[in-house]
Design brief:
Helix content: 25-40%
Low-confidence stretches: none
Keywords: Hydrolase, Metal-binding, Pyrimidine biosynthesis, Zinc
Distance between the termini: 27 Å
GO molecular function: dihydroorotase activity; metal ion binding
InterPro entries: DHOdimr, Dihydroorotase_CS, Metal_Hydrolase
Organism: Emericella nidulans
Strand content: 5-15%
Order of helices and strands: HHHHHEEEE
Number of helices: 5
Largest sheet: 2 strands, antiparallel
Shape: globular
Radius of gyration: 16 Å
Protein name: ORF
Mean pLDDT: 95
Length: 159
């Protein structure tokens, strides 16, 4: 389950090409079902980034708009943001979103499925007023991240 599919619905990508991806997001009920599955603690459901850093020009128009959402710099934060929004909307309960649920969905279940060893490093999330970058530029290409300019969690790595 991707970070962006926990947030978007059909109206999201119909109004913003930077939210257009495949499979396309559908109804609020579909999104809510994904949120409940992600927060269920069932190891059959785990995070996959499917981040697609398409050049901004290929997302803005032309004959065929590139399908894909760029989430990579903020994937963990976006998932936690989606869980928080789901709690505010009454889809999930705050007491159901524990560190163990987040760790299972974001790390343990996928590692177990793919037979990967657990890592000793961990992350720390804090509310510090960080905002998702508006645009990432290089000499050759500009990429627009999902939820650009919106507030999110700050993330730091620890050993």
């Amino acid at each position: 389950v991707t970070a962006h599919h926990l947030s978007i619905i059909i109206d999201s990508w119909a109004g913003d090409p930077f939210c257009f991806c495949k499979p396309v997001a559908k109804t609020p009920a579909d999104r809510d079902a994904l949120l409940r599955a992600a927060a269920s603690g069932n190891s059959k459901f785990f995070f996959g980034s499917d981040s697609a850093p398409h050049p901004a020009a290929s997302k803005r128009g032309g004959e065929k708009i590139a399908a894909g959402v760029f989430t990579q710099p903020y994937t963990t934060q976006l998932v936690v943001d989606a869980f928080e929004q789901a709690c505010r909307n009454g889809v999930l309960k705050e007491e159901d979103i524990t560190p163990e649920i987040i760790e299972g969905f974001m790390s343990k279940f996928g590692r177990a499925f793919y037979g990967l060893e657990e890592q000793k490093e961990f992350i720390i999330l804090e509310k510090k007023g960080e905002k998702v970058t508006n645009i990432l530029k290089s000499d050759k290409v500009d990429v627009v991240p999902f939820r650009r300019d919106q507030e999110t969690w700050s993330l730091a790595w620890s050993a």
